[in-house]
Known about the structure:
With 474 residues, the chain is of the alpha/beta class. 35% of the residues lie in helices and 15% in strands. The strands form five sheets. It has a seven-stranded mixed β-sheet with strand order 5-11-10-9-8-6-7, with helices on both faces. It has a three-stranded antiparallel β-sheet with strand order 1-2-3, with no helix packed on it. Helix 6 packs across helix 7 (194-201). The longest helix is centred in the last third of the chain and has 22 residues, at 357-378. Pathway: Amino-acid biosynthesis; L-phenylalanine biosynthesis; L-arogenate from prephenate (L-Glu route): step 1/1; Amino-acid biosynthesis; L-phenylalanine biosynthesis; L-arogenate from prephenate (L-Asp route): step 1/1.
Amino acid sequence: MQLRCCSPTLSHRHFHLGNPAALDHLRSISLSSHSPGIFFKSSNMREEPFARLRVTRSDSTSNPVELDILLSPRVNSVKPSKTVAITDQATALVQAGVPVIRLAAGEPDFDTPSVIAEAGINAIHEGHTRYTPNAGTLELRSAICHKLKEENGISYSPDQILVSNGAKQSILQAVLAVCSPGDEVVIPAPYWVSYPEMARLADATPVIVPTHISQNFLLDPKHLESKLNEQSRLLILCSPSNPTGSVYPKELLQEIAAIVARHPRLLVLSDEIYEHIIYAPAKHTSFASLPGMWERTLTVNGFSKAFAMTGWRLGYLAGPKHFVAACGKIQSQSTSGASSISQKAGVAALGMGKAGGEVVATMVKAFRERRDFLIQSFSELKGVKISDPQGAFYLFLDFSSYYGSKAEGFGVIDGSESLSRYLLEKAQVALVPGDAFGDDNCIRISYAESLPILRNAMDNIKNAIDQLKLPVSI
């Protein structure tokens, strides 16, 4: 049997920067799968796009059979990740020969440190290639407990740790485990793109609390308190932040903790995946280390960012045993345990010294140099507002002064989406529009690339911005 989609396939000959239709073509989705003999045709795709398909066998003259292809309302409520979509789009352009500079993905350009890579290779040679316990090996969970005690000041036992296939899985399982239909998940904006969608997957309601660039995108405790009620179940905090690079000072976290303590149902998910990528004098504080917050907090961390291990897919959750056990139950019925090889590599990563030792410190130094270069460069552009990122490897820049401007051969820049498309087409730089993160005034730039590449990108961006005809003087 054969499944066919009528969408046209992509052709490399369409991709050149002078052809806007090629970019529109790439933005469309083309899906196909193959097995012999079945052809799907919509009975009424315009009025009923996701209801049923007419199925006809190629080897039969029988009447067509209508197949219901309606999707779950839960799935239909979820938006696809824009960062993933743009990264894939930029990769397709590069493969088609267009020299796009990819500054969309949050992926370090460094290789995994050799001691970690060697541990993975040795794991294969030594036969550590079988299933591990669902929660992770005792060796790795014990190492994580030691790390959290020594570096974060929070104490856990191995049965309060769940190792997963990346921090992203850990977050989703935590949301699914603690939220019920009708519960509210409180999310400061700008936010990582997946937080609201994960809330929707749990049939919970995302409640967005805006922050402002003038306050470095840090949550105002009074604004937070005004959003809380009996349905508030989970507050998600990310420090250092994706997408803003903001770091919550301990004093502000203490104010937030005092508010959390007044709401018996409210838990906190503390996403600390960027904790080691932080620039002095900023310091990282784990929310669970604050008085009275250990019982309330689900701490998520992993290995992808600081240790340049994105492809190893390894993260973890730490928290009270009954919450972690519930997450483990979900994991046992979905992916089961993480890769045995990756877990051996994770043990080696945690053995490199506090905060990853000198190897990670060298990477963080490079990130800081790149951040400083970009801040200086964008400060030379009129009308661009810049916050003070103290961690991670992102800039979240306010370009709203340029909205309403016109670009020859492109049209009007009316928001972050069109600005990002303009910069992709005219500057050959892939960025992420801020509307994906809940703030349409901004665009996100990842500086997880080398300085020479960033310099080239800045030259292209400045040239493209100079071509805009501004609606008013700025």
